[in-house]
Amino acid sequence: MRDRRYCIRYPFAADVVLLDMESGARIEGVTSDISMGGIFVCTSKPLPSNSRVRVMLSRKEQKMEALGVVRILKPRIGMGIEFMDVEPPYHDVLRQWVDQLAKVR
Q1: Contacts of 44 by beta carbon, 8 Å cutoff, 6+ apart
Q2: Helices (DSSP H) in 1-105: which residue ranges?
Q3: What is the Cα–Cα distance from 22 to 31, expressed in whole angstroms?
């Protein structure tokens, strides 16, 4: 299977809250990595593949929100979420986080 990622991923820990756009279910977890294209969320109860979610990330005093879709499932581990829409000013926060991580690498 070909790897579909198109952005470099970086280790990144942030608190995350996901809202399932269909059921309204709320899932809490922690990210393990981030890119301009998405995140991986560690949670024991991942949502089904192709679920549309509102992503709310917080790290220190910064917050970021986006709309996303669950693309990868790892049972009892977590899920990979692709960002579909990141609006300003949240896009600037995401860019700042990724740029800082790229400098450290």
Answers
A1: 76
A2: 90-104
A3: 22
Confidence of residue 5 (pLDDT cuts 50, 70, 90): low
Q: Are 16 and 34 in contact (CB under 8 A)?
A: no
Residue 99 phi, psi (nearest 5): -60, -40
Per the structure block, which two tokens stand in for 71? Answer: 């693309």
Q: What is the largest CA-CA distance in the chain?
A: 39
Read off the tokens for 44.
Answer: 């024991």
Return d(Cα 23, Cα 7) in angstroms, integer: 30
What phi and psi values does residue 75 have, to the nearest 5 degrees? -50, 135
> What pLDDT digit, counting tens, does each position of 68-104 carry?
999 999 988 999 999 999 988 999 999 999 999 998 8
Mean pLDDT of the 36-61 span: 95
Distance CA 9, CA 56 (A): 18
